[in-house]
Design a protein that fits this description.
This protein is α/β, with parallel strands linked by helices and about 280 residues long. Helix content is about 50%, strand content about 15%. It has two domains: about 160 residues, NAD(P)-binding Rossmann-like Domain (Rossmann fold, 3-Layer(aba) Sandwich), CATH 3.40.50; about 110 residues, N-(1-d-carboxylethyl)-l-norvaline Dehydrogenase, domain 2 (Orthogonal Bundle), CATH 1.10.1040. The longest helix is centred in the middle third of the chain and has 29 residues. It starts with a strand and ends in an 8-residue tail after the last strand.
């Protein structure tokens, strides 16, 4: 079984290398020459030419930045003689509706389709310890599982096409809510003169522990706006009130990695424009 990872950026490259290290044939595709050079330096076959690879590939793993890029890659695959029974796997985080629109187009060409976004982030990609949340038929998910397990600790079939992206959205909502909760909790500690990083270390040994807190100083705050926009759109479409996450949607868009760093390691930090350095006390 030969795989093609389309999008060998930071995460995609790690995933492709894990596939190769597990003894499977894989090629990486990217438009960025620096990424291609890095991939080759790590022993991976890589190029910018997807068109001439299509007919020889059994499983395409797409990990690109946007829904439009996913749509463009799928169109390129479908118009360049893909194998009957080959599979397109969308490992990128996209909208569930995009998946539901692409799956029938693939089926018309005899191509399987699975949405399989990943969780556990960059560290999980480096360790080959991601989890793949899959939407698609049982047969199609089973077909791609051997490839996904090369970089995953587990492959979970959430449901039909689009359900993998819904699962990723649910995970993202909890992650960004935890970011807000963690910040406010540690802001309170810092305001009362307790070192925020010290309190974090203590909370990691308490029931308040959460995976986001554990990895919080590695959270890059890159995709929170996109993630929460998808969550809020899904809620509005379903006419489902989510007042807590309406607030999270507003709060998390104000954060940056620098804010977390200042809170954990700096003398001064701010929250919603308010100084949260330690209060002066009087004996």
């Amino acid at each position: 079984m030969k795989s093609c990872v389309v999008g060998i950026g930071a995460m995609g490259l790690e995933m492709a290398v894990h596939i190769q290290n597990k003894g499977m044939d894989v090629v990486g595709i990217d438009l960025d020459q620096k990424q291609i050079a890095e991939a080759k330096q790590r022993g991976l076959s890589a190029s910018e030419d997807l068109v001439n690879q299509v007919s020889g590939i059994d499983v395409f793993i797409l990990i690109v930045a946007t829904d439009k890029q996913t749509e463009s890659v799928v169109e390129t695959i479908l118009t360049n003689n893909p194998k009957k029974g080959a599979a397109v796997v969308v490992a990128a985080t996209n909208h569930p509706d995009t998946m539901k629109a692409l799956a029938p187009k693939c089926a018309e060409q005899g191509v399987r389709f699975v949405d399989a976004p990943v969780v556990f982030g960059m560290q999980g990609a480096r360790d080959g310890n991601l989890a793949s949340l899959c939407g698609g038929s049982e047969d199609d998910v089973s077909y791609v599982t051997p490839v996904l397990m090369c970089y995953s600790r587990a492959v979970h079939r959430v449901g039909g096409v689009g359900a993998g992206q819904l699962g990723k959205t649910c995970n993202n909502m909890m992650h960004w809510a935890a970011c807000c909760a963690n910040f406010e909790v540690l802001a309170l500690a810092k305001r009362y003169g307790v070192d925020a990083q010290h309190m974090r270390e203590i909370l990691l040994e308490c029931p308040a522990r959460n995976t986001t807190l554990d990895r919080w100083d590695n959270t890059r705050f890159t995709w929170q706006e996109k993630d929460m926009d998808v969550a809020m759109e899904l809620a509005q479409t379903a006419k489902l009130p989510l007042p807590l996450f309406g607030t999270i949607d507003q709060l998390v868009k104000m954060f940056s990695a620098d804010d977390v760093s200042a809170l954990l390691y700096g003398e001064k930090a701010e929250y919603l424009g308010v100084d949260i350095s330690a209060m002066k006390t009087h004996d």
